[in-house]
Amino acid sequence: MRALRRIVAVALGALALSAVYGHCQGGERVMALAPANTSGSPDFKGSSNGLLAGTASISKIDVHTLLYPGSTTQVLAHYLPWWGPDPRGVNVGYRSDDPRQAFRTFADMRSRGIDGVIVDWYGAGHFVDTAWQASLPELAKFPGMTFSIMIDSGSFKFNACRGCDLTETILHNLAYISREYFTSSQYLRYDGHPVVSEFGMDAVGKADWARIHAAYPDIYWIHTLAQGFDLPYSKGAYVWAQPSPRAAPQAAGIRRDLLYRERFYDIARNQPPGTIAVGGVWSGFDDTKASWGAAAPRFLAPSCGRTWLDTFKTINERYNVRRQLPFVQLITWNDYEEGSALETGIASCTAIDAQPVGSSLTVRITHPETVDHLELYEQLGGGAFALAGRYPADTTSISLPGARAGTYFIKAVGKPFIQNVVSTAIVVR
Q1: CA–CA separation, 173 and 109 (whole Å)
Q2: 3-state class (DSSP) for residue 220
Q3: Coil, strand, or helix at residue 11?
Q4: What is the per-residue pLDDT for 287?
Q5: How far apart, in whole angstroms, are the C-alpha atoms of residue 287 and residue 295?
Q6: Do domains 41-330 and 352-428 have the same CATH topology?
Q7: Distances (CA, A) of 302 to 346, 377, 421, 427
Q8: What integer pLDDT is reported at residue 3 of this predicted model?
Q9: Which of 421, 374, 413, 422 is CA-nearest to residue 59?
């Protein structure tokens, strides 16, 4: 299925760029050049920690196109269904237990090529579990998508079973997870085994993984960070963003994050055969809106989308068609408080300068590395626009269709998840 999807994606990409040599046939018409197209709430106006508004228009090009050629990697979104009745640091404008919002979320994910979700889970009886139970019927409407549970350390800190230590709490949670979720045909499995991950358990105590494995030997455990490879009965580990204190120089923070990613993948590549490495991609981090981060906020600069693209580059330098990376985690789908939410997209710094010269347009764009391709539109009557052509991002001259006068716009379609940008009106007389 993945190979077929990639073939289709490549074919569509070839069709999209075939217009570089001339006017697009068919004159596709649209009523808006940058319509809102994410599952973010229209009531979310963006935030000071770097997130776009819920009305943003972003690229829906398949996220797999950012991975190395021939990739069979499954792309999974780190999902936090914790938005509910209790106030948090950001008002996102929706509730995670609303089935309508769940449907919009999964539809948006699927439209970007996402294969499934990793649910950051806080235990039975917690609002997160209530919200996820309400979401499952909506996920079933997308049968190609999977889900798995990541047991957060908060399940012990805030929701431990009465009188239980860390190990007993994990066992208690596994009894519930195996009953409620492993039976789903959409639960993520690897070589037939259910995959369960954990978040930050080593920060709240020392779990007895031998005892846990003895009780649930079928589970494939994925642990936090590179040291997770070395835990007893570990099946693998995942990488995570490494923000720095906000006061630290941005360049140093970006360098620190890069060095950690490189170290993780180098360690992962030296693990025994069958070990599961879960890569990670992210666009930035800023937890000034989070109650737990306000006193000593951490930061990782988005750098106009370059951080996002660089996290893919680190993967692509180390994996290929002969050495596949099984999974990549999008960090995160909707942690608005930590400024890592990808739901509303990644802000673009691209600017477009286009000037008519004779029967063509001269085009200059900034930050072309974050642009997938350009589209030329001709304004029609009634507020509609006709697609006149598609062109590579490095195009510097565009011939006008039929050399005719009119009002035109150039749209810079971002690389996956990155904001689309539309030029001002270009009037040709």
Answers
A1: 27
A2: strand
A3: helix
A4: 96
A5: 10
A6: no
A7: 8, 30, 17, 34
A8: 40
A9: 413
Tokens representing residue 249 in the block: 């120089």
Find residue 117's DSSP bridge partners: 77, 147
Identify the bridge partners of residue 360 per DSSP, sorted by sequence position. 357, 399
Q: CA-CA distance, 10 to 4, in Å (whole number)?
A: 10
Spell out where 229-350 has E strands. Answer: 236-238, 244-245, 276-281, 285-286, 298-300, 327-330
Just give the CATH number of 41-330.
3.20.20.80
pTM of the entire predicted model: 0.92
Task: Report the C-alpha dihedral over residues 37, 91, 284, 372, rounded to 10 degrees.
Answer: 10
- State how far the Cα of 382 lies from the Cα of 207, in Å rounded to an integer: 65
* Per-residue tokens: 283: 């666009």
Pair 292, 337: CB distance under 8 Å: no
CATH of domain 352-428: 2.60.40.10
Kindly list the domain boundaries of the chain, sorted by start residue.
Answer: 41-330, 352-428
Q: Which residues pair with 29 in a beta bridge?
A: 386
pLDDT digits (tens, 9 = 90+) for 332-365: 999 999 999 999 999 999 999 999 998 899 999 9
Q: How far is CA 353 from CA 32, 35, 361, 409, 414, in A?
A: 20, 21, 10, 11, 16
